[in-house]
């Protein structure tokens, strides 16, 4: 499963994005946790055209949101993910998980 799909309008943007993603620890540069990614280049598109046709390129894409309920706003995040995916016509599965601390803590 891929964590992030980048949809870019041309080879130049792909080149720039690959440059970022191929650096050491790119996730730290953009302020998130480690992720796997795929870049889709929609050749022949410009940025506004790609924005209006993104649904065509992403048709069939599915999303997964894991709600571990560790943050008080986790249910709100799940609702936001659902709204975002609904707007983009992307199927979303929200999976609640139980990660209660056992023994020495959550990360044990």
Q: Could you characterize what this model shows?
A:
With 108 residues, the chain is an alpha/beta fold. Helix content is 39%, strand content 20%. It has four helices and four strands, in the order βααβαβαβ. The chain has helices at 11-21, 26-30, 47-58, 74-87; strands at residues 4-8, 37-41, 62-67, 91-96. A two-stranded parallel ribbon has the order 1-2. The chain has a two-stranded parallel ribbon with strand order 3-4. β3 (62-67), α4 and β4 form a beta-alpha-beta unit. It is flat and about 55 Å long.
List keywords for this structure.
108 residues; alpha/beta; two-stranded parallel ribbon; 4 helices
Count of discrete alpha- or pi-helical segments spanning 4 or more residues: 4
Radius of gyration: 17 Å
Strand tally is 4
Please list the strands of the largest sheet in the order they lie side by side: 1-2
Measure the end-to-end span: 25 Å
Share of residues in strands: 15-25%
Question: pLDDT below 50 for ≥5 consecutive residues: which ranges?
Answer: none
CA-based shape:
flat
The assigned structural class equals alpha/beta
Describe this structure in a few short sentences.
39% of the residues lie in helices and 20% in strands. The protein is built from four helices and four strands, in the order βααβαβαβ. It has helices at 11-21, 26-30, 47-58, 74-87, and strands at 4-8, 37-41, 62-67, 91-96.
